[in-house]
Amino acid sequence: MKLLRLHLQAFGPFTDRWLDLGDGAVGLHLVCGPNEAGKSSTLRALTALRHGIEMRSTDDFVHDHPAMRLGAVLLDRDGREVHVVRRKGRGQTLGVRGADGGLVPASADLEHQLTGGLTRADHESLYGLDHERLRQGGRALLAGEGDLGAALFEASAGVRSLQAVVTRLEQEARRHFVPGARGSRGRINEALRQHAEQLSVLKDATLRPTAWAELQRTCDETGQALQTLLDTHAGLDRQARQWRERLAVAPLLVRLDQSLQRCAELADAPRLGENAPASRSALQASTAEHQQALAAVSDSVGRHQRELEALPSSSPVVLLAAAAIERLVAQGETLDQCQRDLAETAAEQARLEQRLAQQLAAIDDRQAPAVLLRSVPTAVVRAQADAALSARAEAERAWQQHRQAMQPRAGEAVAMAHGDLPAAPVRSASDPARVALRSACDAVVRAESVLARLAALPAEQAVARQRLAAALSELGHGQVWSVARVREVCPVLEVDIDHAVRTEDEGRTRQGELALRLAQIEEALRGREAERTQLLSQGVVPTADDVRAARRARDATWAGLRADLASGLSGVAGEALRSFEQAVRQADALADALARDAGRAAQLQALQRQIGDLARDRQLRQTELGQLQAEQAARATAWQARLQEAGLPVLEPKSLREWQARLRVVRAEADRVDLLALECQHAQAVADQVRQELGAALQAAAPAVDGAPADDRTPIATLLALARQREDHFAREEQAARTSAAEAALRQEQQQREQRETLRLLAQVDAAESALRPVVDALCLPGTADAVAARARLLEWDQVRVTSDQLAQARLAHARAQRVLADLARKATELASALQDAVPPADLRHWLDDLGRRLEEARRLEGRRQVLAQALDEAIGRRQHHLAALQQLEQARDALCAAAGVRTEAELPAAEERARLRREAEQLRDHVRDLLAQGGWRDEAALRTLVGDLDLAQAQTEAARCEQALADLAPRLDAARQRDEAARRQRDAIDSGDLAAQARERMEEAGATVRSGLVPWMRARLAQALLAQALGQFRERAQGPILRAASTCFAAMTGGEYDRLQSESGDDDHRPVLQIRRRDGRTLTVDGLSEGTRDQLYLALRLAALQMHRDRGTHLPLVLDDVLMTSDDDRAVRVLRMLADFAQGSQVLVFTHHRHLLDLARLSLPASVLRCSTL
Amino acid sequence: MKFLHAADLHIDSPLRGLHVRDGAPVDRLRGATRQAFVALIDLAVRRQVNLVILAGDLYDGDWVDFRTGLFVHEQLARLAPHGISVFVVRGNHDAESVISRQLPRQAHVHVFSSRVAQTRVLSELGVAVHGRSFPNRAVSEDLVPGYPAAVRGCFNIGVLHTSLSGSPDHGTYAPTRVELLAATGYDYLALGHIHVRQVVRESRPRIVFPGNLQGRHALETGPKGCEIVTVHDGQLVQTEFVALDVVRWHGLVLACQPLTDIDALCAQFLADLATLLAGDRSRLHVVRVRLRGASVLHQMEAAQPGVLEAALQAGLRHWDGPEVWIERVLSELTSPLDRAAASERPDAVGEVVRLADQLAGDEAALRQWALAALDSLPALPVDLGDARPDRLTPDQWRALLADAEAMVLAQLGAGLADSVPVGGVR
After folding, report:
1. Pairing with A344, which of A160, A368, A861, A1046 sits 20 to 30 Å away (CA)?
2. pLDDT tens digit string along A129-172?
3. CB contact, 8 Å: B415 with chain A?
4. Is the pTM higher than 0.90?
5. Cβ–Cβ of B407/A1019 closer than 8 Å?
6. Which residues of A fall within a CB distance of 8 Å from B426?
């Protein structure tokens, strides 16, 4: 696919702009544009044409997103011209313009041709290269220290820096896990540390059931002891209380009897309340106060009635119309303003009418103003006029721009001369002999690494064989090992060896533990037996077991005896009776002895039980030890059998692990020997084939140039040099012929295109002029008026429209003022009628002021009358209140006399005194009874019984004894309480807390973090491994063709200064390194190149990699932007020549803002291979 | 009469699969099973139920820490002053032989025997409760035929820990059939073992799995709680499910096919989240997000691992709904990259794709190659042994390889669609 013309219809700063990229015959196109000319927009347009206009494109500063359009004329793979249009939007946005000018959606095949099946990013990486990217490529070569794999990888895929990619992958992996780190440098490291910590916390926080049971038991014991002491304390306390009660009750009973006698003496006194004298005094004082107040209020009533009668009457008519009067007075305040507005609007009307008349006269003084006003242009007419004037100006500007662009090339057309086409035919690039020759050379270059390996392989094979022999001898163990036997051996899995080692270690550890335990048991046994011997040395002591055994024997004898007696065997009864008596005596004697020496007996009993337990424990341990040894022997036998069956030497697991490691070395060495043999065989076959192909190709091309024939002994390097020399000769001839033929065609086509453009622009100017005529007529201008006059007339009509609008506004304001004055006069007349006054005067201002004053006076009189009436009502109310209060006081005095049982008020004090004496006697009686009741002991009768004939001295002695006993008990009680409290506190300290559960939760969280971190870590690590292996494989596969193609390009760019790129092993890690050979045969690495040369090297590698894509049938235009910035003029010319050669395969577009590069290109390249454009 | 039915409390079993990041609500997440159990006791007291029935798996296993038993003992003791009786059967996790520790018996708590099915009649309530505990973890026989006959004149409740006729997510224990349960003549069968609430039969008898009390991992989603059943005159008149979980798990699947950038992803996530949670602000919601579909988001994730999760976390800052914690974001996205076309490319990109294809085609070689690349990983603790790389299946290796390939291609900037930013590549 080739791009013939790019149509920047509406994109970035461009509007309907065409960029001509030739007819497809010329491959290299140089586009020059100064800063701000739109070079970057054009580059983005090329991408947008293929992959669509981005949804958030920033090239919308002239044309809005919906209006953005791009177009192009393409030459498809079948050689047909296709006009495509790309619009902004979603989905299918590429259309093909048909013969009728309509758009139809583009086919998928056409889209595929346009994109080459690549995404936008891939396309930009592979087929786009700008100055920045070129510099980065050069720097990446330096940063990679010439690593060949990295250089080829970066160049082939357009990767900016493989080193950066590797670093990012490494960082991603280390973000999750850092091998060997114990700290918190990676998420997994941190989680593993947390996991271990929480495991420790869990162990510490776990509460064992035995510990809890022990605390519970202690708590129960202390609680029981405390309860016993509390019971004792309660008993003593009860006794003490009883004695204290008797001592306290006796004097109270005496006082109670005395108060009862006094109450009986005052039984006839009246029952009056404590406040009866105070109530009587208050009643008398209130009566006097009310009588004085009644006299004062009666005076006030008389005074208010007199003032009310003396007050003049108010005007009720004025008060009824008060609201209307207030509204009218308020409206009257605007009277002056309305009169002023009326005068001003009248003057404004006159001024505007005069200005309108002047403006209309300036447009046309022959017609009446009213007629002219009907001709004011409407908004539609005005918009049409603006559009026509703008179109006329745009057409004129385009024509002027085209004329200026054509001027510099006017002289070139005259000086154009026609050259003769080369007479002699030349071999083209597609000539079968040349194709075969190039193919044979490519095959040699591809096989370059193979040939180098062929030279180095014999030495490597010898070394590998020696290492294999040495490794075989190291296997040893009294056997002769061969490669075949080594391959037959079936090694034991590492996990099985681990298991065997672990099992063996565990068995050994368990054996040690058992032996240690047995020794401890033996020692303990000896100790207990010694204690028993010492105990028995003080005399025989029966134990409880002995007593129980004797009693069982006694009971058994009795059972036998009873059975004999029941069966009637009298003969044996005597002996049985003696035996029974003996057993009874024995049992009784043992029981007596046990009772006498119970302490030693218990000690002996405990010792015997301990000895028995230890003996049983020893027996168990010995049994377990025997089983363990048997298991170990069985395992050892099985292990040996397994090794023999697998063909392995009989070794211990750990030794076998080491031996198997040596076995792996032997197998690896054997594999390497086999591999080298195969590689040698393959390399020899490749060398024979390429030599044969190269010789045949040279023979086929021999008639073309002179040269000596080759034979089978000729070195491949010599044949290769000869072939390249011949190919260069053919290429130079072909280049010269193609250049001269293309120049003429190019100039002719340029002229024709410029003439077509001139005619189109002139037609456009005429059309705009014609469109302007109707507008001139509509503006009342003569037919000869130009665009300037039309714009002036438009301004005049705008002024007329403004003045007319202002006049209408003034008329409206005048009418509004007149309406306000009339309304005020009508309302004044209506109010005067309502007040029964005369008709108001024309000037309403004085009449309205008088009306306001009348309303104010009427309101004042009415207010005063209301105040006096209210005061009179209040005084009458107070007089009624005092009269009622005096009546109530008289009733209260009568009630007091009745309660005291007297007839007059004067007898009340004596009765009140007797009532007080009776009340005090009863209070004393009740107080004593309350004291007795407060003790809460018993009722009165029970207390009298309790006291009875109490001996006070004895009672005091008994009470003191109880108190002393309680005092003695108190410290013991406190101690027991403290012990119980401590025990309970200790038990309660073990709560149902979830410390251990939380530790488990945290362990689980840490484990989850490890699990979740493992996947991304593994992904990153596998990505690293995948990239590393792909890098190696790509280097192996591609280094031949790419290095050869890049060598050619780089040599062309540097004028042969560097004639070859080659691969060499690095010093340290044998990593292949890119080396550059100078013309004089010396080699250097990339760090020996200058910056500019490194950039050119990167460009050569990129072009060589693109050649691989071409070989696969992908021919997309290559777009280069300012890639010659770091090249001097000589190098720039050579790069352009090389690009012209490269462009024979597919289109190359070079963008630059350096105009001198255009001159250099034109001078150094034939016109047939170069096309230049400016933006 | 009112009773409460719960099961599968698994007290003190940790919530699984939580990898706690900075800012995670750890205090809310830890001890969730305890908090839910406390809420259950509170509910029983507040609603004045007469019985609490716990149908197995009260504990997750033998008490590692004795405090687990003390805690349950303490909580059950709160029911005694309110006259609430507790009936417990042991399940496969807390079978008779599994729980080796003992605490003093509580008068109001009855644990059914593991040797024979028992009946407890509460004549004052008109209720008979039948049940049998698991003697050991593996009970393969049907226990229902051994259950006593229904007591005439009582409301009969059968308590049983069973897998019924089997469930793909749970082991088979004490299997039985619905027909057999119906033939017992009981009025209500309080089952346990299945962690998802399930009303097996609506009535005559009503058979219910209440589900577990607190979801413990991302697969136990949705509301978790207990049943409250009201009985009047010997007839079941009302049932009610009460959610008691303090932390609720959710699974949210986001269809990313049409999404082209991070903003759209966040907007979609918040919209779906609002629908999922329906404004429930009463508890913490833990959400596991799965991203699915062929989308350019796949390349974003491959180029910058973790970027999608970070974006969703950041999106939550603008969320004013219920409290949410994103437990994990699983990317199940597929790449829109045309691998067939990529493998045809002669350049380095094609080399990577072809190498990945070659490795994926040979399981043994892939495993050996991958283990060699991961040999720097140290030995993991015993309880994490299943996470070791050598335990991965061939399918998991292939999935990892595909992810690694996508990561490499994304880092190389290959095959990226529009609007995919790649740091330092483009």
Report:
1. A368
2. 887 877 777 777 667 666 777 777 777 776 767 778 888 888 88
3. yes
4. no
5. yes
6. 121, 124-125, 160
